[in-house]
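tool_call: predict_structure(chain=1)
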Amino acid sequence: ALGDLTLTFSAAELSPEQNALCREAALSAAITVHDRLWDDGLLSEEMTQWEKAKVYYDWICENCTYDFEAGDASLSHLPYSLFEYGTAVCDGYTGAYNLFLKMEGIQCMALSNENHIWTVADLDGSMVHIDTTWGDSGSQPNDYYFAMTPERSWREHAW
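tool_result:
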């Protein structure tokens, strides 16, 4: 059982009705991906939190493209856009990734500076920084931005 999750969106300018529809669609799409990954054996009970987090990291990097045209009110700021259109900016990437981690019971939060947002997660007892946006910087997921130490993350994007 996945339990209860609450999604809040703040970057895009949506009416309460639009917000509710985007929230429901994003959660439904995330559950579909989650279930497919489990059904396909890419995720299993024997895996560590680190291994599960890496599967989701790779999935996002392989299934999303950075939206260089996004304005401040763009849906690309939301996890919804990542699932619906395959495009996002950093808060859309981070929101979708954190949703996946929370579905697995992994403690995580978003951390931001003036220009960027990424994930901080507790994977198997170690606090690590994960930047799915910058990890999606080439034709293959860039593992340099997965499970960074706080020190390395600070060098990449001080907060």
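agent: DSSP finds six helices and five strands in the chain. Proceeding to next step.
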